[in-house]
Amino acid sequence: MQRVLATMFFIAAALFPIALAADQWTDMLPAGDGQQETKELCSNCHNLQKIVQSRKTPQEWERSVNDMLARGAQIFPDEAEKIAKYLSASFPPGK
Ligand code: HEC
Description:
With 95 residues, the chain is mainly α. 66% of the residues lie in helices and 0% in strands. The chain is elongated, with a radius of gyration of 17 Å.
């Protein structure tokens, strides 16, 4: 029993920094229309680091979102449009 507990503690301790690191990027999304969708729909396959560190024009963001759809993202067209608009406003070039 003690060994089970020790193993569980070890696993929890090992996973804790990962959970923390994922949150760090999520918290860096600025408030705005589309923030919630981006948080929920864009973090299924990778964390949000790629997004937070990107600067793209609206055309490039639209292309990226379409690219994610092609990779299998489960996102409705109206949500994809909202996310592309949100990202264009939040992460434009040179900011
Ligand atoms: C179905 C899984 C999946 C989902 C959901 C997903 N992505 Fe991705 N994304 C990927 C893969 C695979 C890559 C390529 C990884 C690499 O190049 O290292 C990637 C790479 C990226 C990149 C870096 C490449 C680039 O185009 O600049 C960005 C930015 C990105 N994703 C944004 C998003 C956004 C925004 C969303 C939400 C609309 C999203 N992702 C949702 C799978 C996904």
